[in-house]
Structure formats: C-alpha cells, structure tokens
Amino acid sequence: MYIQTINPATGEDLNQYAIFTPEQVKEKIQNTHQAFLSWRGIDLPKRLELFSNLIQVLNQEKQACAQLISTEMGKPIQFAKAEIDKCILCCQYYIEHAMNFLQPHQVQTEFHASFVTYNPLGVILAVMPWNFPFWQVLRCVIPTMIAGNTVILKHASIVTGSALKIEELFIKAGFPTNSMTTLAIESSSVAGIIAHPSVRGVTLTGSEDVGRKIASDAAPYLKKVSLELGGNDACLVLEDANLKEAAKAIVSSRLRNSGQVCVSSKRVIAHTDIHDQLVEEIRLEMAKYQMGAPLDEKTNLGPMARADLREILHQQVLKMIEQGATLLEGGCIPEGKGFYYPPTLLTNVTKDSIAYQEELFGPVIAVTRFNEFNEGIDLANCTRFGLGGSVFSANIEQAEYLASQVIEAGVCFVNLPVTSDPRLPFGGIKDSGYGRELSKEGLIEFTNIKTVIVNAK
Fold first, then answer.
1. Residue 30 pLDDT > 90, yes or no?
2. Catalytic residues, which ones?
3. pTM for the full model?
4. On the chain, which terminus has fewer CB atoms closer than 10 Å, C or N?
5. Domain tally for the chain?
6. Which of 241, 236, 237, 239 is nearest to 394 (CA)?
7. Rounded distance, CA 19 to CA 25, Å?
8. Strand, coil or helix: what is 228?
9. Strands 180-182 vs 150-155: parallel, antiparallel or unpaired
10. Residue 172 lies in a domain
11. Alpha-carbon gap, residue 12 to 15, rounded angstroms
C-alpha cells in the first residue's frame, strides 16, 4: 500500500510512499526508545550544539524545503521560505534560553535543599497537520527534544515528502540515529502507537474530532496529551479603531496560507458606527491578493491543500448565504486546474450562522455588525472554540483589559493579527484543546516536573 501526494496547484500526482508495515512500525518505536536512553544522558550544552547544527542545515536547505512545501500543500514560495526562517528563529530562541528554563528551581524550606527539576518522559508521538508542514513539527520537536525526549512523527499524509525531509535534516545535523524519526502510516495506525509502552506522550495539532480520538486512545494508558485543535477566532473592532490598520491585519491574517490557519481572524465583529467603512477598507486590501502558481515568487495566494477541503468550504459559504449573509466578494469555485478558491467576503453574518458553529478553513472573511459594547463581547465569545482572538481599538487600556480578562481564548492580541511566537506560550481553551507549545511552557510540557527534598540530618 502507498501514500499518494498530489500537487494542489495542478491536481496532478506527485509521489508515492510505501506505508510502513506493523513490523516496521514496532521496530521504529523500539529504536526510538533506545535512542532516548542515550539521548537523555547527553548534557544540555551538547544537545544545544546539535540544534545549532540544525540551524545551519535549515539555512542550507531552505530553498529545497520551501519548494517541497509549495509543491505538496500549495503555500506560495515566499511564505514557504518565511516558514523555514521561523523554524530557525525557534531554534535560536531555545538555544539562548533552554539552559535557564531547565535549571532546577530552588525553593526555600526548612530542609537542607528543596528544588524542582525537569526530567524527560521518553518517546513522544507528534501527530502533525499539513498547513505549516515544517513549522508545526519543529515548534513541537525542538523544545521536546531539548528537554531530553525523543520524537516519533506521524505527519499528515499529503505532506509525506516534507515529513521525510525533516527527518533527513536531523540526520544531516548530526543527531543520534532514531532520536527523531518519521512514520509513513495511515491514521488508523495511530491508536496502536499510543498504546505502545515505550510511547510516553502524544502531541497533536489538528481538528477537534481527531483531538477527541487521540485523547480517548491515550486515556486508558494515562499518557500525557497536548492538543492544539481548531479555532474560530473573533476579531473585535471597536468604534475608535484605526480602520486601515485593522483591515490590513484582518486580510493578511485571513488570506495568509489561503485561510488555512487555526488562528486567523475568521469572525470579524465590527461596531455599527464603523462597520461600512471597515468593510470597504477590507475590500481594498483583498484586491491586493491574486491567486497564482505557488512557485512564482510574486504569488501571495495559492490553492487550498485538497479538493475536498475546498468543497467543504464552498458548501459552508453557500449555507451562510442561505442563512441570510450577503456575498460581496468571491464565493465561487474557479475554472481550471488546481484547488483554488477566491478571497471571499460576506457581511450580515449573525451568530446563528454556520460561521459561528464551524471553523471556516479557507480564504473567507465573515463580518458581523454590533451596536452595544456588551453585544460585541457576547458575539466574540459565542463559540465553542477558544484558540485565539484580537481586539482593535485606540483605547489601549480598555483593549488590554478585554484581551487579558474578557475574550475567551488562549491567545489574544491587541491591534495585531494573532500568530505564534517562540517567546510566548501558544495553545487554546474550550474545544480548541489544552496544553501549551513554545516558550518555557512548551519546553517543560513533556517533562516530569519532579520535586526533590534533601534532609541532611
């Protein structure tokens, strides 16, 4: 049996990859566990040296990696290169801060010594999505391995070439054999891997349904799970906001990666006094995005990753119109090759719309008007998701309060589009999952936070 990858810009077949047999999977897990037994004993400065090597390899291989991203899932090459740059930034951040983050934490007590230390758990299974094929993997793998764990990667099938390339990068950087390994398997095999006694934790970035399945599979074995699931982020635009900046942020957030971003501004909630002007500013910004070939350096909007994802999105748009939304831009499947979908703008979207019930994973901007302040807050929080959110306002004190205390999300930005940053923890609440990636929190997510007390008497 094989995994077939497809070029989303043309619909043509790319490559076939043999699916690992159960025996091969078992051997890979055992080898990764053996690698852990030695990797955890390597002192931290030596581990960090290897990540310095990885930076060099990423720089050397940037063009090849970016072309692979663009070809397998359709991201424009300029943004694919930026994705590799962000991976390098993540490496640099942890090289600079890991020694401090993993230092034992001394606690003053009546005993001779009391402290907290951070020990690795073992083999961690990473189940990763296709939308950021390198970034999603490396933002997980870098801190997890620096902490002393080894990693098995089960990547989305449509980016199997990227998955194998990532393993190759670690080998070229000089990492111990099997310390980071990739499994070319079907999703149905994941439960058996979770059940393996050598696998001590699971991290997933994916849909809420897959998250529930992963959590259910891990529960009987009491294994640590971290879930970064879907989002339906609200962008709350108050009457005193800078509308040009707000529109620019909304459109760049929503059309980035053809809208296939968990933390993009999917629901724009605009005060009635500025609603119409904001919509016009959004239309002006949207006009700057044109669909094109991913490998063209000038392209800023590529295809969606799969034909079925485009069809799901299109049906959601049609349902929104049926529910009373007004279509201003886009909303049709273009003729020609590939899985392209145009930038789409809808207004008169209500909280009863499918846009509030489901995640729209594509280049669609849904705008809702509100009159009273509390109505806007209610609309922002009127979703089962809780990944990200943003507030646009000239009243910084009020906006900061809303972001920190009122908006129900794991990440909330003021006067900026939401994005992940290695310096800050990233994750969601409600149906958007639990656990944190990045910063110190991501580094210790898969560690045994151990308390030690020494009595010298």
1. yes
2. 228, 262
3. 0.97
4. C
5. 2
6. 241
7. 10
8. strand
9. parallel
10. yes
11. 10
